[in-house]
Structure formats: C-alpha cells, structure tokens
Amino acid sequence: MIKGKKVLSIGLVVMLLMVCLVGCSSSQEVSKEEAIWTISVEGVKDQVISFTNIDADKIEIKEITATMKKKDGSQKDQQWKGYLLKDVLDSYGVEEFKGVVVEASDGYSKELTPDVVNSEGTILGTIVDGQELPDDNKVQLVINGKGSNWWVKDVSKIVVN
Ligand SMILES: Nc1nc2c(c(=O)[nH]1)N[C@H]1C(S)=C(S)[C@@H](COP(=O)(O)O)O[C@H]1N2
Ligand SMILES: [Mo]
C-alpha cells in the first residue's frame, strides 16, 4: 500500500516534469517565431516578402539625431533608433531602383527618390528618445531634415520601383 503510493507519487512528479518541459520549450518557440510587426516588401523578387522585427534583428540598429520640419516653420529634434532603409533593401539584394514607395496601414504613402533612400538620415524608426513606439505605430519612416508629411507612420508596405 505504502509502496504503491510511493510509485504513484514518483510517477506524478515525472509526469509533471514532462509536462513542464514540453510546455516550456513550445512557449519559447512561439515567442521566437511571433512577429511584433510586419512590413510587406514588393518589387524585389517575384513574390511579396514579409519583413518583420525578427528579420530586422539581423540588421544593424542605427541611432541618429533627426530634425523634423514642422508646418509652422519650427523644427523638432529627436533621437531615433531604427534601421537604415538602404540596409533593409541591401539585405534583400536590392541594388537599382527608380524610387521606393513607403506606405502606411491607413493608405498614406510617399515615394522616395534614390538619394533619399540611400541617405544615412533615412531610417525605419522603432525607438524615439528612448521610448519604443506605440502599438498603433510600431515602425515610422524617419527622414532627417524633411517636413513632417514625409514621416510616414505605421509603415506597412515598401514597394521598390
Ligand atoms: N500613416 C500616416 N502617416 C502620416 C500621415 C497620415 O495621414 N498617415 N500624415 C502625415 C502628415 S501630412 C503629417 S503633418 C504628420 C502629422 O504627424 P503628427 O500627427 O504627429 O503631428 O504625419 C505624417 N504621417
Ligand atoms: Mo500634414
């Protein structure tokens, strides 16, 4: 009777351990695979590419001081962290293009010329003044020195022309 109980409790412990191990490993896998944000990239290969924060982890994060020109003529300086647009395109082997359209979830878009795309002041920003961007705008186009209308919020698509 006592022996039976012991076997039973050992069995229970083993089962709990197994459940824990399986549970832990699968939840780790999920957090590794789950994308926080996704930007579709068109015009590079035949199919649409999904560029996510997981892909971005493989690109060097850059920090720049960016100046935004406001409508009233004033300027605003911010510390931005993100990925150079040209580094993102480089990671997909993009070399030549006539322009790059950056589009937002609300349909707002801007077409950038090659010189703007290749600038060290043009990034897909994710952190501003030390703060991660909010959930409704995880990635924002930052173009140092350009007007606020160029700073496309909640980027969802990049089209290479
Ligand atoms: N996704 C998206 N981004 C956008 C816009 C927009 O309508 N949608 N408007 C642009 C314009 S015209 C301006 S002036 C600024 C406004 O930014 P603010 O709301 O932070 O002042 O966002 C720019 N980025
Ligand atoms: Mo605007």
Write up this protein:
With 161 residues, the chain is of the alpha+beta class. It has four helices and ten strands; from the N terminus they run H-E-E-H-E-E-H-E-E-H-E-E-E-E. It has helices at residues 2-33, 53-56, 85-91, 114-117; strands at 38-42, 49-52, 62-69, 75-84, 100-104, 109-112, 122-128, 131-132, 140-143, 155-160. The strands form two sheets. A five-stranded mixed β-sheet has the order 2-1-10-5-6. Strands 3, 4, 7, 8 and 9 form a five-stranded antiparallel β-sheet that branches. A hairpin with a 5-residue loop joins strand 3 (62-69) and strand 4. The radius of gyration is 23 Å and the shape is elongated. The mean pLDDT is 89. The chain binds the ligand Nc1nc2c(c(=O)[nH]1)N[C@H]1C(S)=C(S)[C@@H](COP(=O)(O)O)O[C@H]1N2 and molybdenum atom.
Question: What is shown here, in short?
Answer:
The protein has 161 residues and is an alpha+beta fold. The protein contains 4 helices and 10 strands, in the order αββαββαββαββββ.
Q: Characteristics of this structure?
A:
161 residues, alpha+beta, five-stranded mixed sheet, five-stranded antiparallel sheet, 4 helices, 10 strands, 29% helix, binds the ligand Nc1nc2c(c(=O)[nH]1)N[C@H]1C(S)=C(S)[C@@H](COP(=O)(O)O)O[C@H]1N2, binds molybdenum atom
Q: What is the count of helical runs?
A: 4
The helix content is 25-40%
* Shape, principal axes of CA atoms: elongated
What is the succession of H and E elements?
HEEHEEHEEHEEEE
Largest sheet: number of strands, sense, barrel closure:
5 strands, mixed
The average pLDDT score comes to 89
Radius of gyration: 23 Å
